[in-house]
Predict the structure.
Amino acid sequence: MKNILFVCTGNTCRSPMAEGIFNHVVLGEEKLEGVRAFSAGVSAFSGDGANPKAQKAVKELFGIDISGHKAKTIGEEDLIKKADIILTMTEGHKKIILSVVPEAESKIWTLKEYVSGYKKTDESLDVQDPYGMGEEEYKSCAKELKHLIDELIEKLKKEGS
């Protein structure tokens, strides 16, 4: 089993949407065996649910229900050790994790960095946080995550995961 950990700040918006989209596609459309995603936040309040706007965005756009999500911090349940690949939403999240767990360096990237083949570009490697914004920003974020996750799944298939 290959475990992918998506990380954002509070584990209520971006990373639960990414986890929900990834697992929905892998279990449904793509049938990618032996790969599952989970999520956490660098400063999450354990037990918080997914943001209602995040829930609505993925439900309306993709028919995905993340209403049962409960936030976790990256330190819970040895999540970093359990992960084979850690994909952060921002370079800042990546730096925070590496400052605490430098041995994770070989398995951590931003999501954009990983799907682009680790190429540095002029484009930001961050997935913008919709927290505190309107429903359209959540939908825009969900669409961006779906696009990146489709690329991620293609990459994993090529790698034989």
